[in-house]
Amino acid sequence: MITRRFALLLAAGLPLPALLPAPWLAVGGVLALAIGLALIDLGVAGSLTGVRLRRDGDRTVWLGNAAATTLTVTNDGSRSIRLRLRDSWVPSAGAGPLAHDVELAAGASHVVTTTLTPTRHGDRPAVRVTLRSYGPLGFAYRQRRRAWNERVTPPWTLRVLPRFPSRRILPEKLARIRVLDGTVVTRGRGHGTEFDVLREYVIGDDVRSIDWRASARHHDVVVRTWRPERDRRVICVLDTGRTSAVRIGDAPRLDASIDAALLLSVLAARADDRVDLIALDSAVRTRVEGGGHRTQLPRLIDAMASLEPALAETDFALLARELLRRDRKRSLVVIFTALDTAPMIEGLLPVLPRLAARHKVIVAGVRDPAVARLALLGETVTATDVHTAAAAERVLHERDRVRDVLARSGATVVDADADSFASQVADVYLLLKASGRL
Q: 144, 292, 308, 349: least surrounded by Cβ within 10 Å?
């Protein structure tokens, strides 16, 4: 193939024959010269059949961070080679730089690095590697594209884990878990509903915790201590239907739900509770259950990384069948969804009483701050502003009505802005944990 330098040579040389006595003959001579130089350049260019590629680097990265992959280029041929290498990824991988210039002697190797800054969570695969071998004059090159599934270029996929901004409040929530467990002494031992140990009474203990029979046997005043219930089951339900694609700020609603589910999962695992995950819309997209505490969180995070919103209505009847058929033990079910009128009335509300009869149910939805801003009127008001504010006010009123109906049906409702959503969901869990209502 010819290069831009070849085209520039022709553009510069073709006007000159017009000044000569036989212009057409001169034009043919210029073309013959240029083509001859390009053919010589192409013949001298190193062969690509002896080029071997090996990829290495990061396999996972959290969204918002950067990863790096390397390509080791080895020239197994008998001649040196001048390469232009292009490492292509899907656009959302944020790869750069894409092109690299490499000069390799026979038997030599060179490592090129591609930095990846993904813009979306999920799997981000490498697409292909394009190799161009240039001649010494730069008039022509040989090209070969090597797709990711060919033998010479091993497949590589970067798993981008979902954003976890609520990680910053994790130490605070874990401290509250330690207080509940009684491992941190504040005003006595932790409170709960499972009996822990008997110990001597000290000033400041609640007199209602005195065990009078044990005190009579020990000839001293002893008190009962309690600890939070352990080995309870927490089921995180992620709605991946069309309402999860609505953007809250600069991210889909699903991202805020995943963030809150991650924080809740870490806290529940730290409190020795079992955490399961169900993600569904018109079908169950993923289900994670079982496993030990060491493998539980990595499996949950890995499953959430591949979730994307689907343009389909969420089948809450399917959720009810899954929970009532397979999960007979009483559990805490946290449903991360949108508190919109139509999906709630037609989808969740008909099955909620059956779910609440067997499980403790929390319905958590992220509030869109743009609706609240539209409901406010500024100093300069037009007719369009009034109609927009009235429509936004109606949406807010319907949301309040849905929240009240859900509460009357037996669910605990969390309705918060994205900034405080994960924290409020965690606070409800900690409150239920402390009061023994799981």
A: 292
- Record the tokens describing residue 241, joined without a space: 């239907």
Q: Across the strands, what pairs with 223? A: 199, 210
Average pLDDT estimate for 171-187: 68
Q: What is the pLDDT of residues 254-293, one digit of tens each?
A: 999 999 999 999 999 888 888 999 999 989 999 998 766 6
Distance (Å, whole) CA 273 – CA 232? 5
Strand, coil or helix: 191: coil
Return d(Cα 392, Cα 370) in angstroms, integer: 9
| Residue written as token pair 């399961």 | 276
Q: Is the pTM of this model over 0.85?
A: no
Tracing tokens 């996929």 back to the chain, one arrives at 157
Judged on CB neighbours under 10 Å (0-12, 13-18, 19+), 313 is middle
Looking up tokens 């083509």 gives 35
Integer Rg of the chain from CA: 33
121-147 as b/e: b if 16+ CB within 10 A: bbebebeebbbbbbbebebbbbeeebe
Residue 396 makes CB contacts below 8 A (sequence gap 6+) with 371, 372, 375
pLDDT confidence tier of residue 1, bands split at 50, 70 and 90: low
Provide the strand spans (E) within 149-231.
Answer: 157-161, 194-200, 222-227
Q: Which two tokens mark 171?
A: 């130490």
pLDDT of 139 over the 70 cut: no
pLDDT band at residue 427, thresholds of 50, 70 and 90?
Answer: very high
User: Among all chains, which residue has been given the structure tokens 């059956």?
Assistant: 354
Taking the CB of residue 278, how many other CB atoms lie within 10 A of it?
Answer: 24
Q: How confident is the model at residue 187 (pLDDT cuts 50, 70, 90)?
A: very low
Dihedral of CA atoms 135, 140, 142, 145 in degrees, nearest 10, equals 120
Query: Are 218 and 173 a contacting pair, CB within 8 Å?
Result: no
Three-class SS state of 77: coil
With a pLDDT cut of 90, the percent of the chain lying above it is: 31
User: Which element (helix H / strand E) includes 233?
Assistant: strand 233-239
Residues 20 and 13: their CA atoms lie apart, in Å, by: 13
Helix or strand (DSSP H, E) at 13: helix 4-13
Distance CA 244, CA 391 (A): 22
